[in-house]
Amino acid sequence: MAKRTQPALNGDASTVRDVAARAGVSASTVSRVLGGTYPVATATRAKVLKAMRELDYVVNAHARALGGATNNTVAFVVDDVTGPFYAHIARGVEEQASAEGRLCMLCTTHGDPRRILAVVETMREQRADAVIVVGGALQDKAYHDRMTHFAHALDRAGSRLVLVGRPPLGPGVPATVVDYDNEGGAFALTGHLLSGGHRRIAYLGRVPGLSTSAQRIAGFTRAHELLGLAPDPELILDGVFSRSYGYQAARELLTSGKEFTAIFAATDMIATGVIQAVREAGRRIPQDIAVAGYDDIPVARDVHPTLTTVHVPQEELGRAAVRLALHRDELPDGQHLVLGTHVVLRESTRRPGPSSRGADFVALGPVDS
Hints:
Strand 1 (about 75-80), helix 5 and strand 2 (about 105-110) form a beta-alpha-beta unit. This protein is an alpha/beta fold. The protein contains 13 helices and 13 strands. Helix content is about 40%, strand content about 15%. Helix 5 runs parallel beside helix 13 (about 315-325), helix 6 (about 115-125) packs parallel to helix 7 and helix 10 packs across helix 11 (about 270-280). The radius of gyration is 25 Å and the shape is elongated. The protein has a 6-stranded parallel beta sheet with strand order 2-1-3-4-5-11, sandwiched between helices. It has a 4-stranded parallel beta sheet with strand order 7-6-8-9, with helices on both faces. Strands 10-12-13 form a 3-stranded mixed beta sheet, covered by helices on one side.
């Protein structure tokens, strides 16, 4: 049996010899496991693979040859790039990556958390300069621990994990966070509706376990509590961020007999489906039912009536993600940037009158007319 030695803990990438020492086998045995062309006993193979995981060994001949160099690539990991919200962030990532002399690689996950982890691992092996993961995170300990592991692994490989629109992983985790005031935007938008006299507001599109949804619900609830009110739990409906969901949920709500005068759609795409359902039901917007969305994607200006919503600086999120990953000294006090949001008032809601109860809400967050 080969003599066990402790690999040097100097932050450099592990070598075949390090893996062999950890597994208690020869370097040639490790090479056989990596190559997959020679038979290796199952137990021995398991020991080698375990050692590779423990040492974060990167199986990439090109990366090893470069001796720690990156490959001038920025990876953009997203659920579905066809969605307008993600597409505008992607544009910001691509523009900044190009300005920095990097190639932008797009990776889609179709909402599968396991796919996100697989893509991040692949990008670590490829030595991307940065791996930018966009969209809400699952509130799950196993998922959180795995992302924390990858943040450290990417850091050791000379790369950087960047979380866009996701909460930080915790103190000491080497990851850049580029976020926006998600809860504050929901708080300001709900305040606008309350200031207009609405007291029974339906919320369509809660996604249990998703950080983005939890933050918006928190802002929605906090705005009610400031006036000594409580949202009706029966008016907070679970769903997905799609137009079809908004249409179906609004139709069911309109025929349920439940009383409400406004609908807060969790995204603009949900709101477009809501508007269609409300109009088909012969109800007027905003005279009968006010409708508001979130994100301020282009469709918010194209629907009729035009949609009151929360503006999220999507392209700047993408640009900042690349910039901060490549120039970490821009945030000397920590790698966590929060961009502001503001309410954009359009035709789908009434403007609050100067004497409306709770009109001070408007002053709590920026509002565009």
